[in-house]
């Protein structure tokens, strides 16, 4: 029997190192090619809820969002901010030192309002964005949604009174502009022309 010139443990060390290399390549492949496709499908399923029909009339619930994505959100990250409830869904990477994608799912009164990908929640984005999921008005049983001017708007009688006030104020401005000091300024403008 011939002995290896590298020693008895050389073959064992080589097998262990090749095994570690194979695991590292497998994890890298899974992280770069398998997980992104899997996450893409889950994210697209979540975004499909923004246009999905509202069967019950209560809006899209947290349970429906979790079922569409395929896993539950991080419970400790659920926050309440300005009347909105935010749940964060993190898509972990196989390589622990890399940050994965995440979704912030925003609810109001228990129903889905908006989904934000890889971005933190800002209430102004929800208020000023066209990407908000409106409830189905024929079936919605939740809180009444009123669209109008901040502060409530008003009825037509109030608007007529406001118009009368504006015309009175305009008349006062015209009278004030006819003061002697203003007439001199008007004459200067005529001279310049």
Characterize the structure shown.
A hairpin with a 2-residue loop joins strand 1 and strand 2 (84-90). Helices cover 46% and strands 12% of the residues. It is of the alpha+beta class and 193 residues long. The protein has a four-stranded antiparallel sheet with strand order 1-2-3-4, covered by helices on one side. The termini are far apart. It has helices at 10-48, 62-69, 123-128, 156-177, 180-192; strands spanning 79-81, 84-90, 102-108, 111-117.
Task: List key phrases describing it.
46% helix; single chain; alpha+beta; 4 strands; elongated; 193 residues; four-stranded antiparallel beta sheet
Strand-helix topology:
Layout: H1 10-48, H2 62-69, E1 79-81, E2 84-90, E3 102-108, E4 111-117, H3 123-128, H4 156-177, H5 180-192
Antiparallel strand pairs: 1-2, 2-3, 3-4
Please report the total strand number as a whole number: 4
Q: What form results from the Cα inertia axes?
A: elongated
Q: Main beta sheet, described?
A: 4 strands, antiparallel
Order of helices and strands: HHEEEEHHH
What integer is the average pLDDT? 74
Helix content: 40-55%
How much of the polypeptide forms β-strand, as a percent range? 5-15%
Radius of gyration: 33 Å
Oligomeric state of shown chains: single chain
Uncertain ranges: 143-154, 171-179, 181-187
Q: Strand order, main sheet: write it out.
A: 1-2-3-4
Which class best fits the helix and strand makeup?
A: alpha+beta
What is the count of helical runs?
5
């Amino acid at each position: 029997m011939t002995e290896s010139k590298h020693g008895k443990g050389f073959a064992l060390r080589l097998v262990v190192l090749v095994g570690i290399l194979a695991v590292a390549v497998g994890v890298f492949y899974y992280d770069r090619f398998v997980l992104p496709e899997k996450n893409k499908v889950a994210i697209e399923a979540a975004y499909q809820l923004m246009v999905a029909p509202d069967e019950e009339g209560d809006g899209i619930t947290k349970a429906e969002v979790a079922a569409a994505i395929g896993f539950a959100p991080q419970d400790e990250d659920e926050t309440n901010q300005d009347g909105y409830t935010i749940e964060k869904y993190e898509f972990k990477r196989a390589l622990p030192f890399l940050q994965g994608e995440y979704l912030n799912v925003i609810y109001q009164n228990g129903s889905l309002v908006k989904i934000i990908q890889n971005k933190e929640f800002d209430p102004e984005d929800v208020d000023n964005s066209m990407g908000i999921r409106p409830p189905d008005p024929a079936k919605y049983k939740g809180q009444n949604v009123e669209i109008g001017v901040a502060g409530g708007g008003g009825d037509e009688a109030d608007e007529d009174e406001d118009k009368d006030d504006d015309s009175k104020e305009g008349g006062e401005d015209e009278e004030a502009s006819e003061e002697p000091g203003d007439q001199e300024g008007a004459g200067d403008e005529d001279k310049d022309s």
